[in-house]
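Morning, I've got a small favour to ask if you have a moment. You're getting the sequence in one-letter code plus the fold written as tokens. Thanks so much in advance, here it is:

===
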Amino acid sequence: MKALLLSFCLLGSLSEAEIYHGVAVAPDGMNAWVVTIETTVVYHTTDFGMSWQPQEVLTIRDFFDVFFLDELHGWTCGRIGDIWHTTDGGENWSRQNLGGPKFATRIRFLNDSFGWCAGGEAILLNTTNGGEEWDMTFFPNPPYPMDTVDFQGVFYVSPDTGWLVAGRFPSGDTFVRGQGYITRTTNGGDTWVLQKKDTICDFYDVAFIDNQTGWVVGGDDQTMNAVVLHTANSGQDWNSVTVPAEARFLRSVKFIGDRHGWACGRNGTIIHSSDAGLSWELQTTNVDTTLFDIDFADTLRGMVAGNSVVLFTTNGGQSWGRGLGAVHEPSGTVGPELSGLRVFQNPDGSRVWFQVAGVNGKFELALYDALGRTVRVFCEETRGRTCRVVWDGTGLAGRPAAPGLFQGPVQPGGR
């Protein structure tokens, strides 16, 4: 008996067309938020991707990133340095800043007082009072030319010591290869020392686990090859680390503890290290789209925001499921007796239906949620013809199932 595992999402009001650009996972491992570039929507989940609710932010400027200290206190940032803050998990958002860089790309807080926001055109925003006031730092040219330097990543290990990285993705005829910058401050941002200027690669994110040990990720924007740099001496030396050949241009990096790290990027790339970044392995995502941001609550529970998809894992990335996205047909090797299985969704999102062909006699379709709980079981008989099974979105008790990820095996020989 062979079985095929399929996965799909019951979307409700969520759209597959959105570009999910930033993600934040709260330390409780249940609450998470994603923001969408080209819209002003913030999506929030309280059950780790099983269901999502949009949150209203009263702005016309789309968001690039989101960060939460816990399940209540968070910030999001976007175009023209637009920064918003919430103290109730996103039920209410208030503006803290507008103006400065052409876009605010990455926002990070050390605690409820000290925060930083990397921006385009070599501009940094920083606060020492939780965002009540934001100061602006304009970096000098030389060595930071405004027309080629966009700060993409920021990370501080203390109120005094932090790093910024820069890169610029090619667009139209403005292509310039190798705009990677790594710069460091040890006095709270009063002065910055350029540690590395790269002529081949661009850098998009940075993470440190202490004052000495850190990583920068990015890539070569001609070949789209991924790059990971490592330092063990606060950035005095940055050394290239070998990554899988299949890994493409990286956009985000996250470390939990001193050993486990993840990075994501183009063409569905997620790589993982379990030995403090000395070696990296490719993780299977089954998507071929750019993944912009990655965050983890612990070494098991993490999420990735990407172009038209949000992925989640509860086992450290051994498997990744879709937390946001559209109905997808099964993929992978399928036995011939199940080669006719397809998944469809009505345009209004109210029903999902399955077309099963090639099964001789009875078969069983069992649907499970992302936590492995049974949602619905169908026992049908093909009678030698293509069978259509319609699911109206209700569970075993007849109550509507919450929007989210579902999966299930189809196998011959139902009860």
